[in-house]
Amino acid sequence: MINRPFIVCAILGATAAGAQDRATPPEAERQLARAIYKEMVEIKSGFTTGTTTPVVEAAARRLKAAGFPASDIFVGGANPKKANLVVRYHGTGRQRPILLLAHTDVVEAKREDWSMDPFVLTEKDGYFYGRGTGDDKAQAAIWIANLIRYKREGFKPDRDIIVALTADEEGGGPYNGVEWLLKNKKSLIDADFALNEGGWGESMKGTRLANDVQVSEKYVINYRLEVHNKGGHSSLPVADNAIYHLAGALDRLSRFSFPLKTNDVTRAYFSAMSNIEKGPISADLAAVAKGDTAAMTRVANATTAWNATLRTTCIATMLEGGHAKNALPQLAAATVNCRVLPEDGVEYVTSALRRVVADTAVHIAIDGESHSAPASPMRDDLMRAISAVTTQLWPGVPAVPMMVMGATDGLYLRAAGIPTYGVQGIFYDRDDIRFHGRDERVKVQSFYEGQTFLYQLVKRLSGAPAA
Ligand SMILES: [Zn+2]
């Protein structure tokens, strides 16, 4: 996934000094994580060229070799090429299970577009290069490596720890692994809450700014606006013209904005931002966190990311119409893409659109499916644990809750009643996000720090005393 409000312009005092010792795993653990990572990256699991089954089969082999019984490992899915893996590490059962999720498919990568082979894990200049190094095989490899480590160390969690590696997040179906598991094997992945991709550490020119936690996400509704007309010869024009109807509707839409609003997650986000940002905007951000509508307007006008954080948006993205230069159009149509706040329902958005279009000649229909899901609650236990481990590894760096604009598999889990939090502790420079792009890469040090962060976080959430 991608597409999120970035921390806008902060400089924080936290330095790398000391972080390396605290956050670097022991050599043997590093080697294990790297070996799993390499194996996963080098299996082509793009939607058209590959399959996810070999990725999970490789993980299953490693788990079995580490002593996980076959009865605790499930491999299967909607299609033989699109298998998912679910493995359970048993705890005492004092608390309900925790689900650790990562997807195993990747966006396609062509050798000729890249500086190196995208399906070879290349370590160069302090980075790991390869398709999926960031999205999402780092987290997938780390979950498996850490689970093996817990077992070897004899860690006794107070809840089951479930790892699910799933198919087809990027392709958007039809084999989406999380959707399939919820429908067919819900008991295998049912959990108190889940940790997933969608949040990561944010740094600027090597300085760590914040450890972002994705708590909710907007969802998508695509609309098709259509005007039909009997048409006719263009030499005999009439006022009732399909293109004019549509153009009028789109013009009215261009001047419309959904109301500004905040929710628990965005209030917490703006509150954290007010401590990070410098200058006059800082006071406005604090006011937004308290629900001040005048400040919301100023903040929404400051950046498109903050505007998108504060309201549902709908924007025209595609257009078609007419069939001949000398004919009155029989059809004019547009696609309107809406990114909807979790608390705004489909009905609400549709009726707002009808009101704005205000023309019965313009037929409005939802194009495709739309999956809405509630935000995950801002659970105190979880946010406290994330903050504590973040501070311990990177003193001075805050954990910042976020709502993101893009979509992850967390949407399916939230809709099924499993609150999901995107958190990785893997830091990326905000100007160097290469997910889905060429020469995708992750800093070697950041990968290993993420391994430590997630190792400690899951332990802490599973009853281990604070390290
Ligand atoms: Zn992803």
Quick structural overview:
This protein has helices at residues 19-23, 27-41, 53-65, 137-153, 177-184, 186-189, 242-254, 264-276, 281-289, 293-302, 304-310, 346-357, 380-393, 410-415, 444-461, and strands spanning 73-76, 84-89, 98-103, 122-124, 127-129, 161-166, 193-196, 201-204, 207-217, 219-228, 232-233, 313-321, 327-328, 331-340, 363-366, 399-404, 420-422, 427-429, 441-443. The protein is α/β, with parallel strands linked by helices.
Radius of gyration: 24 Å
User: Kindly state the mean pLDDT as a whole number?
Assistant: 93
**CATH architecture designation of the largest domain:** 3-Layer(aba) Sandwich
Q: Tally of extended strands?
A: 19
Tally of alpha and pi helices: 15
Which distinct ligands sit in these coordinates? zinc ion
Count up the domains: 2
Q: Roughly what percent helix?
A: 25-40%
> Given the C-alpha coordinates, what overall shape results?
globular
Residue stretches low in confidence (pLDDT < 50, at least 5 long) are 9-17
CATH fold description of the largest domain: Aminopeptidase
Q: So what's the CATH class of the largest domain?
A: Alpha Beta
Distance between the termini: 32 Å
Fourth CATH level, the homologous superfamily of the largest domain: Zn peptidases
In percent terms, what proportion of residues is strand? 15-25%
- How would you sum up the major sheet? 6 strands, mixed
Spatial strand sequence of the major β-sheet? 1-2-6-3-7-17
Structural class: alpha/beta
